[in-house]
Amino acid sequence: MLSEISEYIDSSLSRSPMRLWHQSRMKYMEGLKPQQMSDWLYKSLLMLQA
Question: What domain range is 18 assigned to?
């Protein structure tokens, strides 16, 4: 499930100027606890839909 969402984000951002932002976020996410990860992912999906 999480990997599917990540692939969706990767594919959508790979052709967008947010890609560099996404890559820096991925490095940040690696250090997050699971609860923080889900909160961040939720906010990210909201931003992608905006």
Answer: 1-48
